[in-house]
Amino acid sequence: MASTTAAGLDVGPTFELGALYLSPMLGAEYSYTGTPGVAATLLWAFEAPPLPIYLESWTRATLRSPFGGSNEIIWQLQALATLRSWVALGPEFDAVYAESGQRRLGLRANFGLTKHLVLGVFAGYEFDAAARAASIGVGPDWLAARGTINFTY
Fold first, then answer.
1. CB 101 within 8 A of CB 128
2. pLDDT for residue 116 is more than 80
3. Dist. CA 81–CA 59, nearest whole Å
């Protein structure tokens, strides 16, 4: 599996401007290779009622150089269709700007477990040969996968 493995926690407010939602966040991230980082994230989401479609984009900058790691910027774009009140499905594109850039295209599913808790799952193709060569050895080297848990209150 060609994927950087990390865990993080971001905290911030959400501003609602009509059908547009903005969430600037600050947080911490810890790479399983042992490098912590400080993260700043901007999330925007746009709903298009009455259509069951929404767009979501994340831009995340992670500063790891003070801790001996490499800095990176990640950009994600998702176009999801709400299939039921609790599940949304659609394409996602990721771009990672770091020492070795990565680009991933795949399918994302979001499951609304409660009003405030969403579980997200992504599986896609890793386009970058260097990232595939650095595979962690689980599954095919072209597979990029990620799980997310989003809690809002």
1. yes
2. yes
3. 21
Nearest Cα neighbor of 40 from 14, 61, 12 is 61
Widest CA span in the chain: 48
Question: For residue 52, is the peptide bond before it cis, meaning its omega torsion is within 30 degrees of 0?
Answer: no
Work out the angle at residue 42's Cα, subtended by the Cα atoms of residues 8 and 96, and round it to the nearest 5 degrees.
65
The pair of three-digit structure tokens given for residue 87, joined into one six-digit string: 């599940």
pLDDT tens digits, one per residue of 22-47: 999 999 888 777 788 899 999 898 88
d(CA 47, CA 56): 9
Average pLDDT for 124-139: 74
Nearest to 31 by CA among 67, 56, 55: 67
- The residue ranges of DSSP E strands in the chain, in sequence order, are 6-11, 15-17, 20-31, 36-47, 53-63, 72-84, 87-97, 102-112, 117-126, 143-151
